[in-house]
Backbone:
């Protein structure tokens, strides 16, 4: 097994993938516009993330769990994301996903990319349908930050060997905590606080920003 030389923690929606999964679920539920509006407010920091998430999830009540099969087929990895992850892994940099999105999608993405560290929100399901409620810990900005630190500690890595990549205000804490915080196609409010950013949706543009790649 390759020695772990670093850790890269990535946001999923709007970062690893181009779409916001909650918006795609909203389309299936017939309330895409309402959910998209709440999503935009949350990503700009105009609404508390946990409150916005609960409001959006409530609108999904009644969707069958098979909806995740449909949505998974609709998402697209950001350009060169798979190659970027492969390069990191070959260089001994472990990649993890932390998402304010949902485990049925994040888990599938992780498995498809040979990623074994991931964390996402759990939706309550009853009799094969979404109840409109969440269960367990909600992946807030604070949880993203603490997850990065937890994984870093488990791996015995110094802060300087950590990378965080994200696009929304929910990512700010982990971007500031990591040794290398990179705002990727981020909202203006995020770029205002994170000096290092990539504005082209191409993960190969991120590689030159990681100074411990061999």
Residues:
């Amino acid at each position: 097994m390759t020695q772990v030389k670093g850790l890269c923690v990535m946001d999923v929606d709007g970062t690893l993938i181009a779409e916001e999964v909650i918006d795609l679920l909203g389309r299936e539920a017939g309330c895409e516009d309402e959910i998209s509006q709440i999503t935009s407010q949350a990503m700009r920091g105009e609404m508390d993330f946990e409150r916005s998430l609960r409001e959006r999830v409530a609108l999904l009540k009644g969707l069958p769990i098979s909806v995740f099969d449909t949505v998974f087929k609709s998402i697209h990895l950001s350009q060169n994301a798979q190659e970027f992850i492969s390069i990191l892994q070959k260089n001994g940099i472990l990649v993890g996903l932390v998402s304010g999105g949902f485990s049925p999608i994040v888990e599938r993405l992780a498995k498809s990319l040979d990623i074994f560290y991931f964390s996402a929100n759990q939706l309550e399901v009853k009799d094969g349908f979404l109840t409109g409620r969440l269960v367990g810990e909600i992946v807030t900005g604070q949880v993203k930050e603490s997850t990065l630190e937890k994984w870093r500690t488990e791996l015995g890595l110094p802060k300087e060997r950590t990378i965080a990549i994200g696009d929304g205000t929910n990512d700010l804490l982990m971007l500031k905590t990591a040794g290398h915080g990179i705002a990727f196609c981020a909202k203006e409010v995020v770029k205002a606080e994170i000096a290092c950013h990539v504005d082209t949706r191409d993960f190969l543009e991120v590689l030159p920003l990681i100074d411990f790649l061999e």
User: Anything to note?
Assistant: The beta strands are 6-10, 93-102, 117-126, 129-135, 162-166, 180-184, 197-198. The mean pLDDT is 95. Residues 22-73 form a domain with the DNA polymerase; domain 1 fold (CATH 1.10.150.210).
